[in-house]
Q: What sequence folds into this?
């Protein structure tokens, strides 16, 4: 599986936007970019995914670089509830749905 | 829809005992995945099952671990003769199909081996 690289941790202030980067320089044409997050003592939760175009949903936005070698998850207004570990994962379409989790980015939100 | 249900939420076993972890996927989902998360580590894929079939068990330890997803009832992850190193959080996820859809995870079972 293609590998992703994320910063170990990031800090944000409450109600400010947060940009979580992910590098995936070995991404292939069939890899989708998925983001999940894991709140303390809970199971992972789907956030967003995309292939080439930027994506928006009620939780976040996903900005994908034109060459697809990197992407950024954008939380428009961080809340204390957004404090979690955020995982950027590449998945090949129709190749089974198992997810390969890396270390993720631990996001801390300060009030 | 109640979501993915895992039980028990917490399980304590003595070394050498058996642990049975159950997972009921979301309604209409026939693809189940089990993951293990050791303390302070990321999640690792263990096994992928469809109804009555094991599709991929490449992440499962060769001994003491088994999984099933019968035609009726929940998926079961079974660990025989547990050891302290099996202490971890075990998460189950379900998918509707094999396309690039979101995974729904349960709250996990936290196994402690004493």
A:
């Amino acid at each position: 599986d293609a590998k992703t690289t994320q910063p170990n941790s990031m800090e944000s202030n409450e109600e400010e936007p947060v940009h979580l980067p992910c590098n995936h320089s070995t991404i292939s044409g069939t890899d989708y970019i998925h983001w999940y997050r894991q709140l303390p003592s809970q199971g992972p939760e789907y956030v967003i995914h995309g292939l080439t175009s930027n994506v928006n949903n009620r939780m976040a936005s996903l900005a994908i670089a034109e060459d697809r070698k990197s992407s950024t998850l954008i939380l428009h207004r961080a809340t204390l509830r957004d404090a979690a570990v955020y995982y950027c994962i590449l998945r090949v379409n129709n190749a089974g749905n198992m997810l390969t989790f890396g270390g993720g980015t631990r996001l801390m939100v300060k009030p | 829809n109640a979501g993915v249900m895992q039980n028990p939420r917490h399980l304590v076993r003595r070394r050498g005992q058996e642990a049975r972890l159950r997972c009921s996927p979301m309604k209409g989902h026939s693809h189940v995945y089990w993951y293990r998360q050791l303390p302070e580590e990321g999640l690792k894929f263990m096994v992928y099952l469809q109804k009555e079939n094991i599709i991929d068990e490449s992440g499962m330890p060769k001994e003491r671990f088994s999984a099933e997803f019968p035609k009726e009832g929940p998926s079961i992850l079974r660990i025989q003769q547990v050891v302290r190193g099996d202490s971890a959080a075990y998460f189950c996820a379900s998918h509707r199909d094999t396309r690039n859809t979101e995974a729904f995870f349960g709250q996990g079972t936290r196994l402690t081996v004493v």
Q: What stands out?
A: The mean pLDDT of chain A is 92. Strands of chain A lie at 9-13, 18-23, 31-38, 45-50, 55-56, 61-64, 70-75, 84-92, 105-110.
